[in-house]
């Protein structure tokens, strides 16, 4: 049996797997369109099952389609250490989002098999269903049901735009498995993922040691002024809902910049009546606030409210704020984070401790098992896009750190 | 023959005409839907022709449907003094916009007939075709062809949403007249209109002495940043097209307020990709700048350009500005304005000198004949709305000033 430090993943084999599976749902622009529970998803699942079975794994499917490929370890009394992510993509998704985490996990299993390396705990490679949420909202539905965030019946009833329910789609591709979601235990989970942001690339770091996931709050904001003629209404007599909203957007930018690690985004805005020569009478806009610390999120929310209240006085408008979603910050398990940190340092990569800005399956699994994530750079921070790109070397680094983190974590069970 | 000062219009008769014609295309909410060259327009035109002919007028129709009801004066060597506005409405229009100007003109003719008053010059009541531009863009098409602003063939080819051309619609309702547009001379024109703005009401004035029409420039603005993930892109690394646009909207508000009588409006805004958790990559917005003085408009445009340029540096975005329309300021004829001023003062009304913020048929007619306008208040400045409202007393005041201004102007031809 090789010692841990001699075990090196086969980066070319990983890359070949990335290229090969990217053909399933591959788009002309070099991306992937592989919506969850479609025929493309069925094909990549079949490929995944075949590869895992070829490595001697027992592949189980639960009742929301999550796939678990179990490789036995020395001790059968321990729950498996999981490596997981997702093989579904956005409608115009890239080749790495989710896929890298699963295929790097597969490469870990291949490398261990080649080396005839026996872990103490069993290992388990997981393909979570419907991480993207593009076909069936919300996102991370499979890991969410697994972790008890969503009710099974709720998940089954989610419908796509054609009215097909999640439950029907499971049956259509034959992936409603016999195992109750959550009944297959996870001792810990490690998820490798592209950063989907620009920080690692900009800072020249290779490995992001992800300590947790930001808290996130979504709001609907309505600003009501008075629709009026653009030519005959003097500036001093206006109650312009759009100018008031623009003030809010500028305020929000200033508020977020005042707190380290805070982000605030207005992604959508709609004005009524939306005519070139009519002063907007009402505006609807979305606000997305994120921060790793719930206390700071509270303060951001307070400042947002104050800014909104000030609009009433300054612009003569009425406003309303509705919080439509609140996802609390996730703190990954220190043992798992330490395993990632140790592995990355042992490999000699430039690292950066970070908090994920986006949601991931690991965020839900963290509710029921010790969990951590590893980030690698993606070009320009671009993701959810057919031009999404990650380098051969960074994929290799991510997979290597993933393997060594898992083995490091496993050593406690010796 | 009565002296001018004894001639008082019959306000109840005017009001009755307003009520009666409001039934043609009347809406449940108390407004009017009487789009140009529809069957409703045909019906109100027939009513108008009948009333004018009953007063002994000769009604002529030109080849773009403009209607001219001529009442002979003492001298047949003079071109007629016109009173004009429009009987077409917005899709959800009010009872006063345009209609008041025509029916007040009709009431002037009725009062003169009752008093057997003979003017020096002939009088001519005009109903201009397609002032609103709701069915066939652009607005003020009939007066525009009359004044040589638009080519006749261009007007005929304008199509509505069903693909029916302006020319076809003229034929359908039988209002392609035998007279060449522009061939029926106008010696001067007076147009009474509701203000369509809030100033008179707010200031407690009854009569607006309209000295001209603001210059108006329309622009398309494009702001291109970088689409990115709302969660994983730090504030410092964003190129947020919407935050940049919001800054521009606030700047524009400040710029306009720095110049007396300037107005600036952003009436439409569209963001891409318009997703709650994606930083907007691009924004399209409209800018409407107006001022009575072309030189000030130039300065406003320069400051708009500077504000746009500053966005590039401050927000890392690229911008473009396209001027899509430029309507120069209109200065009404001092003789006509003086006639309005003298009439309003003689009647003892509180007056205000003003410049129209909106376009009107009078703005085009002013290119070919001495012209002026009279404004009366409308409730809350509301127009292009079924709730548009003007009081009995203000309609009376407007019609009275209209009559006396016309008679005052006519006295020079004694």
Structural write-up:
- The structure is a homodimer of 414-residue chains.
- Chain A has 414 residues and is of the alpha+beta class.
- Chain A has 2 domains: 4-213 and 329-413, Zn peptidases (Aminopeptidase), CATH 3.40.630; 215-327, Alpha-Beta Plaits (2-Layer Sandwich).
- The first copy, chain A, has helices at residues 11-22, 39-54, 99-114, 141-146, 152-157, 166-172, 199-203, 241-257, 294-315, 334-347, 361-365, 392-410, and strands spanning 58-61, 67-71, 81-85, 123-127, 188-194, 207-213, 215-224, 228-229, 263-265, 269-272, 278-279, 282-291, 318-327, 330-331, 351-356, 371-376.
- In chain A, strands 1, 2, 3, 4, 5, 6, 14, 15 and 16 form a 9-stranded mixed beta sheet that branches. In chain A, strands 7, 9, 10, 12 and 13 form a 5-stranded antiparallel beta sheet that branches.
- In chain A, a hairpin with a 5-residue loop joins strand 1 (58-61) and strand 2 (67-71).
- In chain A, helix 1 (11-22) packs across helix 3 (99-114), helix 3 (99-114) crosses helix 12 (392-410) and helix 8 (241-257) packs antiparallel against helix 9.
- The longest helix of chain A is centred in the last third of the chain and has 22 residues, at 294-315.
- In chain A, 57% of the residues are buried.
- The model of chain A has no long low-confidence stretch (mean pLDDT 96).
- At the A-B interface, strand 8, helix 8, strand 9, strand 11 and strand 12 of A face strand 8, helix 8, strand 9, strand 11 and strand 12 of B.
